[in-house]
């Protein structure tokens, strides 16, 4: 059973907002993440060298534009393990973390609340279907949050800033299209407008967007 409004797609295209079609990561191999809490010191974590346990799981991928890719097999480390080992020791208990801003190498960024990041199946993934991530799918490292639309599953992830109060990172129309949680099961496609009302609009852009991203490769 797919979530409300979603349709299965056999292929798994490179996809995203049109301005990012011709933007690519400068690094496709180094799995280092820069992290900090509010204005605290930065730390660099090389997930290629970490002793965190690796995990593998099958999870469907749901694009907000209503297509889904079913049964992808992701490999990496669980975000909850990453957070417990590297981030919690940096924290200030008087101002607990409530969420994070996630930054991609191509300039994309979004937010997620900590509660959603620490769900068991959220991963920092570096492989797909048994192979290292390709550029199309977020090399060298990406977030996988299966219960959230694809725009929260940040590709080319390079930095995570944790905050006691999550700052606004989108303005205007982009803020409208970026729900704070973007949960697939609740069809939280965007802010202020019911998700089902956006289905037809989003579907009209799927094939053109997929072609643009493919051509940019």
Task: Provide the fold topology.
Layout: E1 7-8, E2 32-37, E3 43-46, E4 54-62, E5 67-78, H1 79-87, E6 99-104, E7 109-113, H2 114-117, E8 123-128, E9 131-132, E10 142-144, E11 157-163, H3 172-176, H4 195-203, H5 206-216
Parallel strand pairs: 1-5, 2-11
Antiparallel strand pairs: 2-3, 4-5, 5-8, 6-7, 6-11, 8-9, 8-10
Describe the structure.
With 217 residues, the chain is of the alpha+beta class. The protein has a single domain, classed as Oxidoreductase, molybdopterin-binding domain (Sulfite Oxidase, Chain A, domain 2, Alpha-Beta Complex). The protein contains 5 helices and 11 strands, in the order E-E-E-E-E-H-E-E-H-E-E-E-E-H-H-H. The strands form 2 sheets. Strands 1, 4, 5, 8, 9 and 10 form a 6-stranded mixed β-sheet that branches. Strands 3-2-11-6-7 form a 5-stranded mixed β-sheet. The mean pLDDT is 95.
Number of domains: 1
Mean pLDDT: 95
> Which topology does CATH recognise?
Sulfite Oxidase, Chain A, domain 2
CATH architecture: Alpha-Beta Complex
> What is the helical fraction, as a range of percent?
10-25%
What separation lies between the terminal Cα atoms? 33 Å
Strand content: 25-35%
Output the radius of gyration.
Answer: 17 Å
CATH class: Alpha Beta
Give the overall shape.
globular
Strand count, sense and barrel status of the largest sheet are: 6 strands, mixed
Overall number of strands: 11
Structural class: alpha+beta
User: What's the CATH H-level superfamily name?
Assistant: Oxidoreductase, molybdopterin-binding domain
Identify low-pLDDT runs: none
Q: What is the count of helical runs?
A: 5
Helix/strand order, N-terminal first: EEEEEHEEHEEEEHHH
């Amino acid at each position: 059973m797919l979530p409300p409004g979603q349709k299965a797609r056999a292929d798994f295209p490179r996809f995203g907002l049109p301005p990012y079609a011709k933007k690519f990561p400068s690094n496709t191999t180094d799995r280092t993440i820069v992290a900090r809490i509010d204005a605290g010191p930065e730390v660099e974590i090389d997930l290629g060298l970490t002793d965190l346990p690796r995990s593998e799981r099958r999870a469907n991928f749901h694009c907000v534009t209503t297509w889904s890719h079913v049964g992808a097999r992701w490999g990496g480390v669980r975000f909850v393990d990453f957070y417990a080992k590297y981030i919690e020791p940096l924290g200030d208990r008087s101002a607990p973390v409530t969420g994070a801003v996630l930054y991609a190498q191509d300039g994309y960024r979004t937010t997620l609340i900590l509660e959603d990041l620490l769900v068991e199946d959220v991963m920092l993934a570096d492989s797909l279907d048994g192979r290292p991530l390709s550029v199309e799918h977020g090399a060298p490292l990406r977030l996988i949050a299966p219960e959230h639309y694809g725009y929260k599953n940040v590709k080319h992830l390079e930095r995570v800033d944790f905050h006691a109060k999550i700052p606004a990172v989108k303005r205007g129309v982009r803020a409208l299209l970026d729900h704070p949680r973007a949960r697939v099961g609740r069809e939280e496609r965007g802010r202020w407008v019911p998700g089902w009302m956006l289905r037809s609009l989003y579907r009209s852009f799927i094939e053109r967007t997929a072609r643009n991203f493919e051509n940019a490769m």
